[in-house]
Design a protein that fits this description.
single chain
Length: about 80
């Protein structure tokens, strides 16, 4: 059984890892825009002109999931201890 300190550490590292993946994804989309749109348009069959809007929605949803499911529990647990 995990105690509250272990769960707090778990959510802290989950937040760090997910924000790192988020930052890497954003950087990759920005720096290698032509490469990523080319690959994704071929893989999923979406027009390359529509992909920036899809990327923006994906990054926004991903950020919200990180905040809701990682950062909020971490902050709540830190307040409890």
């Amino acid at each position: 059984m995990m105690d509250i300190n272990q769960v707090t550490i778990f959510f802290g590292w989950c937040s760090v890892i997910n924000f790192a993946v988020f930052a890497f994804s954003a950087l990759f989309i920005i720096v290698f825009k032509d490469f990523t749109t080319g690959i994704h348009s071929k893989l999923i069959g979406v027009d390359a002109a529509q992909l920036p809007a899809l990327y923006f929605k994906f990054m926004g949803d991903f950020k919200m999931f990180i905040i809701i499911f990682n950062l909020t529990p971490y902050i709540a647990l830190k307040l409890m201890t």
